[in-house]
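Appendix B. Raw example, untouched.
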Amino acid sequence: MQQRDSLGFTLLVAAILCVVCSLAVSTAAVALRPRQEANEKLDQQKNILDATGLAIGEYGKQAGDLDSAQIQELNQWISAKLVNLETGQYTDVIDIDNYDLIEVTSSTANSVEITDPEYDPGEPRRPNIMKVFFVKRPGSTKIQQVVLPVFGKGLWGTLYGYLAVKSDLETIQGITFYQHKETPGLGGEVDNPRWKAQWEGRKLYDADGDPASLVYKGPAPSDNPFAVDGLSGATITSRGVTNLIRYWASDDGYGTYLDKLADEVGAEPRTRSSGE
């Protein structure tokens, strides 16, 4: 029998503790995974509802202030499809229920390199396939809004969000960012409900059909249909939001799909500038 104050005994106890702790952590991680996935799904639902304005319209509250029953009731308005950005056609080549934007973006088989885009989102790659969402009154087939996942570089990292567009496919309903690393009180003001509220009614395209939405440098002129107020002290974040919205509205992003969706929803075709 080893002495309790021997080196061997000490190492044995340390090894046993490491194994026990590892098993405990692993067991907890496995046990909590379903709850984590449920919370991630609920957070996604809340952010989509905030972008669409449904929570405010139905309950007069932000989605984060609703209980789970209210969230699930409003979620009946939301459906989803996968879109091939190159063709603008719907596809089922990926399991929609297990679609993960970050995972798909990192896969060279399911994404493309972003090279010399007209509107630079600051990212190296974007998916070939994107999961888009629709707002339809329960029981109706009429699309009231389309919600487009968007992402692009801010100051400290990538901003991930949702851009909701009304059925005319040129008027913004709302925008929300669910993941970012921007500085609280500066670039982090992308989370401020008052700033996000300015996006409703802003136009996505100009008269030539080119992406024109922007975060203005300073207070936005009241007669500018494309602009919202700049984020004070956050020039790079403001520029990043402008770039990512314009990129995803362009033909490098959802442009081809939105042109095809116009026929589906009965929207006016997007005007094209000369030379396109």
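End of appendix B.
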